[in-house]
Amino acid sequence: MPDPTRPNPHAAPVPPASLNPARPVEVPVPEDAGAARQAGAAVNGGERVRRIAAESAWVDVMGGASRHEIRLYDHGFIALIDAMPRLVPAGQTADAAIVQAARVSYGAGTRRVNEDRGLIRYLLRHRHTTPFEMVEFKFHVSMPIFIARQWIRHRTANVNEYSGRYSVMPDRFYRPGPDQVRKQSRANRQGSESLFGTGEQTPEEALTARRFMEYLDEAERLHARYTDLSERGVSRELARIGLPVSLYTEWYWKCDLHNILRFLSLRMDAHAQEEIRAYAVAMHDLIAPIVPVTMEAFADYELGAVRLTRLEVEALRSRAAGGSDALATDNARERAEWERKRAELGLA
Fold first, then answer.
1. Exposure string (b/e) for 113-135, b if CB count within 10 Å is 16 or more?
2. Which of 70, 191, 223, 253 could form an SS bridge with 282, CB 3.0 to 4.6 Å?
3. What range defines the domain where residue 336 resides?
4. Could you tell me if 69 and 145 lie in one domain?
5. Is there a single domain that holds both residue 127 and residue 267?
6. Average pLDDT score over the chain
7. Dihedral, 154, 156, 159, 163 alpha carbons, nearest 10
8. Same domain (yes/no): 78, 147
9. In a domain, 34, yes or no
């Protein structure tokens, strides 16, 4: 027999009397709150909220569209569905919000467009990143799960993903062609290099590519078993666990411009997986018309940049002094990276 003198840990919590809907509660208002409201209303011409008219016409950075969309692969897409700021003064772009935030620190107003461009380029060049956080973009994305798992590593965004616990996972799979099967890189453990169909394909390579496509066939047939088991009563949250990561998922992804630039610098890089690189390039193309000055600077300082380590700078100084530009390290990967940079700089 349960002890009636002891609380039942499984019972629903009883709200305190002050929160019980059957007993209305009066929330006390500070004595000076009414006077403060009256004072504010007096200052604002009888209204508490002061509405200030725009000095010029405002335009929608998305041109009045509900979404700007780029299709990718067989079932994928990335769509820009909102931006902040959405409205900007006529003749300006969303870059203006970056300039506005940067200049508030010393109280200066908006300057000429060429000065704004110079300021944005200075900020990006010297890694003054906070003003870029004043611009945000929201995307709707459909991508294979294996791409989503890489994407989610960028933890500075707000994400809400399609849930296989609540909804049936759609029968949509990413499927590269037989001529797009990549070989494992011998130098990079997490990357790939040439295709099995590159050059003269040996019979063994042709067989391997064909077996890979058969492997995808088998994985995709799991969806029929998933559907059957779901219809037999297996919970959706459990039935989904046998599905492959080539299955498509969707999410809404909102991020500020500073962290989007970080995402793009990593995922547009040649070392990124080809599939996520395609999404990154599409993202770049969607936002470039909205923040053109920022993206121009990003191309100049990030995408087209060659970053040098201290050892590499010392090697260049040695070369300039008539010595060798060999890297002072025994690390094979560092030496290989330096050789690639030398080639990019035209020094090889």
1. eeebbebbbebbeeeeeebbebb
2. 70
3. 310-344
4. yes
5. yes
6. 86
7. 50
8. yes
9. no
> 242, 222 in Cβ contact below 8 A?
yes
Model confidence pLDDT, tens digit, residues 219-261:
999 999 999 999 999 999 999 999 999 999 999 999 999 999 9
Alpha-carbon distances of 120 from 98, 268, 285, 289, rounded to whole Å = 7, 22, 19, 16
d(CA 98, CA 122): 12
Q: What is the pLDDT of residue 329?
A: 94
Report d(CA 13, CA 283) in Å as an integer.
48
Do 70 and 117 sit in the same domain of this protein?
yes
Active site residue 37: no
CATH number at residue 289: 3.30.1360.170
- Cα 341 off chain centre by: 28
- Identify any residues that bridge with 137 across adjacent strands, giving them in sequence order: 83, 255
Q: Is the pLDDT of residue 195 over 80?
A: no
Number of domains composing the chain = 3
Residue 9 lies in a domain: no
Helices 310-320 and 332-344 meet at what angle, rounded to 10?
60
Q: Provide the token pair at 297.
A: 């600077």
Active-site annotation holder among 67, 153, 240, 267: 267
Least confident of 29-43, 44-58, 68-82: 29-43
Q: Which residues pair with 256 in a beta bridge?
A: 136
Residue 85: count of CB within 10 angstroms of its CB: 19
pLDDT in tens, 147-157: 999 999 999 99
CB 293 within 8 A of CB 93: yes
Give bridge partners of residue 20 from the DSSP assignment: none
Phi-psi label, residue 104: left if phi above 0, alpha if psi -120 to 50, beta otherwise: alpha
Cis (ω within 30 of 0) for the bond into 16?
Answer: no
**Contact call for residues 71 and 77 (beta carbons, < 8 A):** yes
144: β partners: 248
Question: Residue 103 domain-assigned?
Answer: yes
Shared-domain flag, residues 86 and 197: no
Domain presence at residue 23: no
- Is 0.85 topped by the overall pTM? no
- What residues form DSSP beta bridges with 84? 136
CA–CA separation, 336 vs 329, rounded Å?
A: 11
